[in-house]
Amino acid sequence: MEIDWYKAFLSWGGLEFSEKDFNVYFDNVKNNDLYKKYLKKGARVLDVGIGPGCSAIPLSLLGYSVTGIDNDKRVIDGTRKNINRFGKNIKLIHGDAFKLSKFFRKDSFDCCIHDGLMEHFPDERIIEFLQQQIYVAPLVICSIPIMTRRNKEHFVAKGDVFRDGIYRNLKTMDEWKKFLKEFSIVETKKRRASEKIGRFDELFLVIKSKTI
Fold this sequence. Notes:
seven-stranded mixed sheet, 212 residues, 7 strands
């Protein structure tokens, strides 16, 4: 079930993106009302599993203080090239998303973000994954593809392994809400992903600890 993300990104076209690609990513982030609603300018944001920086780089340009963490140095090297070309002042850390509390103190950030990552873990690891983020930040804003008729056709599943060879633990929107019952889901927003990444149905979640 362990995914080699460097190889996965290469199979999807590589880590470095073009100016045209960047413009798509920037518009996606700039027009995301959830960031505007929950994050003040200058907010400290941790991008968990930063990948190529599709969200982190636009956020850095929009006035947020962004840190990215990824467990693959090869991915970080590719991300750094994108940052040097398009972004600014993003701190990159090589580390495990399941050990955030070893890298950061409680509430070191105002928000953790991640896009298209949580669904690649089995149920028991997803809870652990989110618990680590809730420790280092009081808020999580994330996006995940959800199980819909369109997505079944898009991903063409054989069990939980899809046509690109990647494991995806897909759930419907209601199943995600029920599964994450130990957290406080503040807001949800369903939308269609951009043409660049496949036009599949995705769900944005704003999550807090129930103790807050």
